[in-house]
Amino acid sequence: MTGEAERLQKRLARAGVASRRAAEDLITAGRVTVNGEVATLGRTVTPGDEVRVDGALIETAALEKVTFLLHKPAGYVTTARDEYGRRNVLSAMPPVPGLHPVGRLDKDSEGLLLLTTDGDLTLTLTHPRYGHEKVYRAWTVGEDDPSDAELRRLVDGIELDDGPARALDARPVPGGALVTLGEGRNRQVRRMLEALGHPVARLLRLRVGGLWLGDLDPGEYRELSERDLHDLLHPAEVPRRLWERAERETLERWG
């Protein structure tokens, strides 16, 4: 880090406090101070400036960006704080300053969840304009599994209570369906399948971008390498043989 000035929201994002957009909301709300003064949008800071959020000192000078892939167990929430005292995914992780979940998986869902100290990565993975694919394995309730014809309706698009929704791909697998989304609305896979008359008993996220869950057991995690991060953000550049192996191993383990 040089002595050059940077936007305050970028400093907060580097510290893992929030994405740049969310950091702007913190600044607008008057929750951020620089050298004891309430900051405003457009403020720039240098490495020697004291930045605080809600009175807590934000230190970024020596912060090393780190990202983990966690197999989120069912029953854990991904919100930073939970008013009901439920288990939080951060309790399953090492105590890394600034670590936060990237997006959400609802409490009852399982599978691949990313946690990072990199606010810019969080923005890239959660902003709708980037459309990173996510693959889910759903086990449905009832004697009849979703049919090809029913699942084609998900690709064509169906109406939910918060607007139209569509899957990039949906195909039947024993006991349920394998659904690929390019967006991540609240409980979307569950609601889409329920709209077809197939409530979901269990939901497991298998892939985000170019990363597969692999054979991690619930509660296990691993730190991502530079290669992992590249594959995550650039799935089209993953060598075909590596992609096919990761997909096969994940589906054999969990599909």
TrEMBL record:
The lineage of its organism: Bacteria, Thermotogati, Deinococcota, Deinococci, Deinococcales. InterPro entries: PsdUridine_s_RsuA/RluB/E/F_cat, PsdUridine_synth_cat_dom_sf, PsdUridine_synth_RsuA/RluA, PsdUridine_synth_RsuA/RluB/E/F, PsdUridine_synth_RsuA/RluB_CS, RsuA_PseudoU_synthase, S4_RNA-bd, S4_RNA-bd_sf. Residues 6-67 form the RNA-binding S4 domain. Its EC number is 5.4.99.-. Belongs to the pseudouridine synthase RsuA family. It comes from Deinococcus aetherius. The keyword ATP-binding does not apply. Keywords: Isomerase, RNA-binding. This is Pseudouridine synthase. It is an enzyme of class 5 (isomerase). The keyword Cell inner membrane does not apply.
